[in-house]
Amino acid sequence: MQELLETMENSSLIQLEGIPLFPDLDDNVEVLKNLFSDCSDFVIREFRLKHSARAIAVFVDGLIDTAQVNEALKSLMIMEGGDDNIGVIEEALLPVSQIDRVDDYKKLLQAVLSGDTGILVDGNKEALTLGIRGAEIRSVNEPEGEAVVRGAREGFIENIRTNTSMLRRKMRTPRLKMRSLVVGRETNTNVVVAYLQGISDAQVVEEVSSRISKIEIDAVLESGYIEELIQDNIYSPFPQIMYTERPDTVAASLLGGRVAIFIDGTPMVLIAPATFWMMMQASEDYFERFQMTTLLRWLRFLFLIIALLTPALYVAITTYHQQMLPTTLLLSVAAARESIPFPAIVEALIMEVAFEALREAGIRLPKTVGQAVSILGALVVGQAAVQAGIVSAPMVIVVSLTGIASFTIPHFNAAISIRMLRFPLMIAASILGIYGILVGVLLILGHMANLRSFGVPYLSPVAPMSAGDLKDVLVRVPWAFMVKRPRLLAIPNAHRMDPAYAKQVQQRGGQAGTTSRGNSDEEGNA
Amino acid sequence: MKRLTPIVVLLLSMLLVTGCWDRREVNDMAIVIAMALDKEPGGLYRLSVQVPLVSSLGSTSGGGGGTSGDKAYYVDSAVGKTIREANDIIQSRMSRELYYSHHRVIVLGEQLAREGMSDALDIIARFPENRLTVYLVMTRGKGIELLNVQPQFERFSGEAMRELLKMEALPVSLKDVAQMLTTPGVDAFLPVIAPVPSHPKGQSREVQIMGLALFHDDKLIHVAQSDSIKGVRWFQRYFTPFSAVLSLGGDNRMTVEFLRGKADITPVLKDGRVHFDIKVYASGIVMENMTGINLEHVNNIKKIEEMLKKEVKTSVEKTLQIMQKYRTDTIGLGIVLARYFPREWRETYRERWYEELPKITYTIRSKVVIEEIGQTTRNITKVDSENE
């Protein structure tokens, strides 16, 4: 016993695995007190059952719903029945819906530290955990990172149970599986791998689960930890796993055969495998009319190119390819650059770095101060620098255009990779002109074509081409034509809908108008 | 490391395959807007360049740039044994690199045109910065004169000439000249532009299109006035509109603008003589009517169309007469002949086309349609004298 206490002194939860609970309550109390010495929030409440068997309730203050736990303890202490067998207590005495029986310290403490209340009764080798949690959680809000005009206004929060319940509310089907894992020696973070049985590729599900379960790390504080640890290529500037804080996006991804990874403590849910094209799509694409969506997608691709290339093109054209500009434009550029003391590349780097700094400052600062930053940025860096002749006006236009363009990319992590990549392109442009830009773009494209996310090529379905999936890349066809799921994975259940239905509506409804010919009254009763 | 080496090698080799490294900042360039080539006594060439003074174009401090009276450009010129030498002389007193990619027109001086322009034009095609789409014009006297003109509407006379050529004249690019010079059976022509004082005198000098310079091979042989050479327009690939004034006796005049026109040439070989059958189709609109003729009547329209036919015919005749007189095939009758009778052309006419040209005969037929008579049928300010 003493030996055990000494070894347990510094052990984490994993090391407690297999250490059984003692039948003698005093031993258990000693172990717990020893483990949780100096833990002011850890409570061991000793009490007696109705007919004087000794018991303790252990819980973490603040994680439980005190009133409800009081109710539960009341039924043990006051109500009749009176049995010290843990099985009887579970089955007959405790009016608690979420109750579990555990037999070792790891399971017990994992539950208690997650907010359960542990009940240990003298003379029993097992303990009960009551799932009466009541920790303070943020209420469900509109997701700020992915706001929409049309669509659900709920976003995930930090609590994983709330998050999985939001997904379950979208998909009321037994096919929605949620595999539970625990990652992190000290954080013991709950991770849930969600997928649709029979629609997701089983291999991918296995791969995701096994990669996550192999993680040996002390803490997982955000989804980024998991993302970086399970992605295929560590050094790539491109995100190979998407994240979202919208339940409807998660649901749509699952229906497309992907796997979602919920992580406790963050509102971000990871989605794998991801392709580059997913990063260019917003959830609203599927809610608004398809024409507008298609046009918006083209706009995003145009601005993706602008965000990546404008500063590089400006540098290349003004220093190498002046003949490409119309004469009058060249004269305007020349007049604007006349008094600028720096070469174009230095000017471009100054402005782009300044812009990145402004943006970074704007994100970190409280909203009230943030306005001051934007004023400073616009006035000081923009106007004053131009008037002082330190940067030229066209450069300011280029930088602002680049900035606006990078904001049109719907997913932040894709936008930052584009932001990063324009710097090497600018330098390539300053050395080799448009030839340099071409080399740079080809290197980037080559890298993207090489990239895989859980076995799925990053540029699919464009490269490698799978013609059937192109209906949801550069265009978004009407839902009536999206009969099949994307074929990126070996999806067993490929059909989304009955293709005949849309045709029926077109023929019977609309102009023919036969559907409205029924003699229903205003309430719709026949 | 092993993976990195090939990448580094690849990147380094990219530096080698690029050709010339020509990084140059915009503020180190002197952008040549127009250049003029002249021949000086002693077989020397004079090169003149028109360069905008970018700092006086104004933009950086907004509004401030270019005080009135200050020229926004600068013309420099030098004489050399070759044009490149002249260029080097100019360069040696210019702190910015002369940059030729953006010149809009090349002005050829009369003397150079008379002595042959081919040699002078070589550098323009050979030097990669130059463009074959640049417009060539000729001027009476020195080409540099045109560069020194400050037109009111544009900042540079080079720009003004280009716009003027595109709108009003038959623009001829270097590419066209090269084609005309190398094709047997057609001779080159260039628009002629001259500096003229505006009216009232002294306010400014503008550039004006004066006519067409006709070449025999690459040598100038005649400068035709705009009026006498209008007939050329019927034979161009793209018709440039022009107007004709009809005189109906006394002060009764009418202006008709030809908007579309096209000519068909059919050569006929008869007893070793070359005869051309020229058909001109034209359509125009009435722009001005000072005659009081009621254009509502079909008969009147018919009458005017008849007169226009004659007008068209004269314009072609005048042109052909000039061509025959100076033995230059501006409209390319030779090419037409070559296309219809390739064997005869090759065997007989190609070598002695210039001797043959004055001997050819032609018939001209024309068809003119008046498509529109304008918004009014009769002069609205005149009392209606007809009995109605």
UniProtKB/TrEMBL annotation, chain A:
| Protein name per Swiss-Prot or TrEMBL | Spore germination protein
Biased region (Polar residues) positions are: 504-518
* TM annotation in the entry: 259-280, 301-320, 396-416, 423-445
Q: Which keywords fit this entry according to its UniProt record?
A: Membrane, Transmembrane, Transmembrane helix
GO cellular component terms, A-Z: membrane
Gene Ontology biological process terms in this record:
spore germination
Q: Where is this region: Disordered?
A: 502-526
Please report which protein family the annotation says this sequence is part of.
Answer: Belongs to the GerABKA family.
Q: Which domain of life is it from?
A: Bacteria
Native organism is Brevibacillus gelatini
Residues forming coiled coils: none
One of its Pfam families is GerA
TrEMBL record, chain B:
Which Pfam families does the entry mention?
Answer: Spore_GerAC, Spore_GerAC_N
Query: What topology does the record note for this protein and the membrane?
Result: Lipid-anchor
Stretches assigned to the Spore germination GerAC-like C-terminal domain: 210-374
Q: Which residues form the signal peptide?
A: none
Highest taxon, organism lineage: Bacteria
List the source organism: Brevibacillus gelatini
| Keyword field | Germination, Lipoprotein, Membrane, Palmitate, Signal
Family assignment? Belongs to the GerABKC lipoprotein family.
Q: What is the lineage of its organism?
A: Bacteria, Bacillati, Bacillota, Bacilli, Bacillales
Protein name as it appears in the record: Ger(X)C family spore germination protein
